[in-house]
């Protein structure tokens, strides 16, 4: 509770709506980007993030690569024609 309160208070002081989990999410997203750029596998990020499963990190990677958005666009174009 103390950390949650501190993060919320500091965020308000600078005009930003912050969440502890949001900061964690941002750090893990950056770690996925850095690992991908360095050709490291996700198991290294898994150790950093302390996730129990690579499946969770695959979501971060999918968000980064935007596969879901790309496929949605392909489906939408296919439905038009």
Describe the structure.
The chain is an all-alpha fold. 79% of the residues lie in helices and 0% in strands. It has five helices and no strands. It has helices spanning 2-13, 20-37, 42-49, 54-65, 67-80. Helix 2 runs antiparallel to helix 3 and helix 2 crosses helix 4 (54-65). It is flat. The model has no long low-confidence stretch (mean pLDDT 82).
The span between the termini is: 54 Å
Strand content: under 5%
Q: Quickly count the helices.
A: 5
The beta-strand count equals 0
- Series of H and E elements: HHHHH
Radius of gyration from CA coordinates: 17 Å
Estimate percent helicity. over 70%
- Main sheet record: none
Write the layout of secondary structure elements.
Elements: H1 2-13, H2 20-37, H3 42-49, H4 54-65, H5 67-80
Helix pairs in contact: 2-3, 2-4
Give a quick set of tags describing it:
about 80 residues; mainly alpha; flat
Summarize the structure.
Helix content is 79%, strand content 0%. The chain has helices at 2-13, 20-37, 42-49, 54-65, 67-80.
